[in-house]
Structures are given as C-alpha cells and as structure tokens.
Amino acid sequence: MRTCKRILLWTLCALLLCAAFACTPKEPEKTRPSVVVTIFPQYDFIRAIAGDLVDLTMLVQPGSEVHGFDPTFSEVSTILHADLFVYVGGESDRWVTDVLQKSDRTINAISLLDLVDALDEETVEGMQTEEEGEETEPDEHVWTSPKNAIRIVEALRDALIGLLPDSADTLNANAERYIGELTELDAQFHDVMANAKRSTVVFAERFPFRYLCSELGLTYYASLPGCSSNEEVGLSTVAFLIERVREEHLPSVFYIEFSDEKTADAIAAATGCRKLLLHSCHNVSRADFDAGVTYLELMRNNVESLREAVD
Predict the structure, then answer these.
(1) For 81, 105, 221, 254, which has the most beta carbons within 10 A of its beta carbon?
(2) 55 near 30, Cβ under 8 Å?
(3) In degrees, to the nearest 5, what angle opens at C-alpha 264 toward C-alphas 263 and 268?
C-alpha cells in the first residue's frame, strides 16, 4: 500500500512539474490527438476503436509489474500534454490524483472504475490476508468481465468521438464491431458454465478475477487478493488450497501471467491436478506486445482454460 512518504513525494513532484509545464514553450500543433493510458486493456480497447487515428501511449511497459508502477517525470509530462488520459483508478493509481489536481490545465481523464459497478476486493476462506486495519478497496480488475469491457468500450468510443468528431462514423463502426466480438466472448463464457460439471475453482496466487467469477457464479479459493503487495504465499495457505482441490475433486489449479508458478507447482504435485493459465490481461510480455496480441485473444484462451477447469 502507498505510504504517507510516497504520497508527499508525489505531491512535491506534481507541484514542480506544474511549474515546469507553465514555463514550457507551446508544443507544435499536433495532427492527431494524443491518448495516454496506463495499462494494456485500455490500450487494446482504444487501438480497436481508433486505430491510427490517434497517437496512443501505454505508460506501463510490456512485461512490467503493474501494481508497483511509479511514473517518471517524463511520463507525468506526457499525461499533462495528453488530449485524453485513461487510467484504472483505485489503490494502484493513487498517484493519479496528485497529478490531476496539481495540473494547471484541466486534463480530459477517464477512470475505468467510474464506468462500471465496482466490487470490493474480498477475503474468502483460506486467503492470506493483508495487514490488520487495512481498509477494503475496490477491485481494480474491471475488464475481466466482458460485460464491463463493453461498458468501457462504449465510454471510450464517446470520448474519442469528442476528440475526432469528423471521424465519428469510423469510430462508431469500429466500436460496434468490437462490441459484437465482446458480446460473443461473454456468450462463450456463459456457455461454458451452462455445461459445467462444477462451479468451484482454485487460484494459486493473486486473484484478479472477482468480476468474471461474480458474473459467472463461480465459487473461488485463492492465495491472495488481486492487488496484494505480498510476494510469498504461506505454507498454511498452500495447504488449505491443496485440501480444497482434493475435497472438491478439482482437475485444475489456475495461475496467472508473470507467475513463477511455484505455488501452482506445489498444488499440482500434491494433488495430481493440472496447471492452467488464466490471463488477467493486466499486462502482456514484450514478445506478445510486439506480436500484436489482443485482449480478445487472451480472453478466448481463458474461455478454453475455464472449460477444462469446470468440465
């Protein structure tokens, strides 16, 4: 969690940046609106809607850990000069508040948490808890539900039309096509559950699928909350999850992207179950990013992983 010292540091940084921004010569006129996003889901949604109609920048680099992100002075300057800034909101984006409030211009900013019906992170049975006294925070992984993704895309479409009114027909057509694909993705997830033999799943590490599990009626057990700052999973937590897999006769245990898979390996070795990747789409590897992998590809793979887990 963010410390008071870190918040104070960002406040001072934002004040210094605003002073520099006020003295910066006016930038040359831009031919395309600049859109700055924090992470991959927003990047891919805007890429699908606007294509090369905008200059699109993703702050968190591919392959990087998202939860500990701290923007550089240059990256904050990029935000301040953007025509549209899209971020998630919540605990991981506390630094955004200082940047937006201390700017000497109104920044056109969208928080994903403001676009959906946010759910709080929850501590389920057996989950390794955070520090005592920590307040409950909204779960930030709103895009893991295709229905939420549709609401987000609709809002981004409207914001982009505001920047590019002459391209409204193109933006509307692209968004409509993409929403159709998201609607089909949602139907695929629900089809899996309509034919499922079980409705309980186990996650070996962080659990970033609160919205998807809620949407599909899945019962879950996991080591850690989705935005946990913990790095290690305790032995008692691992033992609990092993017992859940055995008692529920589960064929699989999930791990997420960028995992070292140690906890999943331990559970699989103790129970004989399979390991399956369920990708949160929070970020992608550099190789996948360069290859142009998309949110839809990753989520369609998740459909098949879920099918294996509940069959």
Answers:
(1) 254
(2) yes
(3) 120
